[in-house]
Specification:
about 300 residues; alpha/beta; Rossmann fold; three-stranded parallel beta sheet; 11 helices
């Protein structure tokens, strides 16, 4: 933040101090992207013109007062694309090669030969056709998997997915896939899109991976589907409630892999987030067009609004 501090007065605040820090501020950098402090402090934003959030998802700050205001909203699109794609590929391989089972047997001191699954030739349906979804599609395609997408509108000529199905037709196409990856932005249209109906339509041998937002999934329906054998497993990096409550049945379910919202967090990621903000700050002070401007009606950065 040193380049910013040279030319601007920078105030650092926690949730309790945010209202005081917001008064008279022209820009706000939301570092804690899971914080709910911004809506509560919004009454003090008397001259704010730009809000930047240190995440790709903007749902924590997509409250009505911001949506209806003239404040420009930007996100950190581009930072997490390849790290999350690598994480998803790792999960696919971990499922196919039963790494969790090997670790359990190792800890038990048990020598048990098994056969594992091929990765190449498997089918993946990626729900979310933004930059992260595209990075996932490219990486899985390179690993020999067949990929299709789910987005706002259907199309057959997408450069990364080939076929993209409309999100309201998810249940009709989800049975095609051996792996289903959720990475869609959280909007009113996508909230709870993976529900009882979607899971019931999956192959019983398929796995579900969520690296998007926890609220994309109706957790109770996922638990019921896993117990009923409607799918073979799940890998979850995000949850409706974080941290995941200790009483959640997901902690102890077979064929479920859990991680604490870390799929995009690689060594150096925080520095990259700050560098992206500083670059945008320099454009802002120069009166230039900002990168990663969010369409507040859609809830995400439209395709083609760099950087990619």
């Amino acid at each position: 933040m040193a380049p910013v501090e040279k030319v601007a007065t920078v105030r650092y605040a926690d949730a309790a101090g945010l209202p005081d820090a917001l008064r008279g501020a022209d820009a706000l950098f939301v570092w804690d992207f899971l914080s709910t402090a911004v809506p509560d402090a919004w009454h003090a934003a008397d001259r704010l013109s730009w809000l930047h959030i240190a995440s790709a998802g903007v749902d924590p700050v997509m409250f009505p007062e911001l949506r209806d205001s003239d404040v420009v909203l930007t996100n950190s699109r581009g930072v997490f694309d390849n790290p999350i794609a690598e994480y998803v590929l790792g999960l696919v391989i971990a499922f196919a090669k039963d790494f969790a089972g090997s670790l359990d047997l190792q800890r038990a001191g048990t020598w048990r030969h098994r056969e594992t699954e091929r990765v190449g030739g498997k089918r993946v349906l990626v729900a979310g056709t933004g930059p992260i979804g595209r990075a996932i599609a490219r990486m899985l395609t390179a690993a020999g998997l067949s990929v299709a997408g789910v987005g706002r509108r259907a199309r057959e000529d997408d450069p990364d997915f080939g076929t993209v199905h409309a999100s309201d037709e998810l249940a009709e196409h989800i049975g095609w896939a051996d792996y289903v990856v959720a990475v869609a932005p959280l909007t009113e249209q996508t909230k709870g899109m993976f529900d009882r109906r979607a899971f019931a339509a999956m192959k019983p041998t398929a796995r579900f991976i969520n690296v998007g937002r926890g609220e994309l999934v109706v957790t109770e329906d996922l638990v019921d589907a896993l117990r009923a054998g409607e799918l073979a497993g799940a890998a979850l990096d995000v949850f409706e409630t974080e941290p995941l409550p200790a009483e959640s049945p997901l902690w102890t379910m077979d064929d479920v892999l859990l991680s604490p919202h870390m799929s995009g967090d690689v060594i150096g990621w925080k520095d990259t987030l700050v560098e992206l903000f500083v670059a945008n700050f320099e454009k802002w002070t120069a009166g230039e067009q900002l990168d990663n401007v969010v369409d507040k009606k859609l809830g995400y950065v439209p395709t083609g609004a760099g950087p990619r």
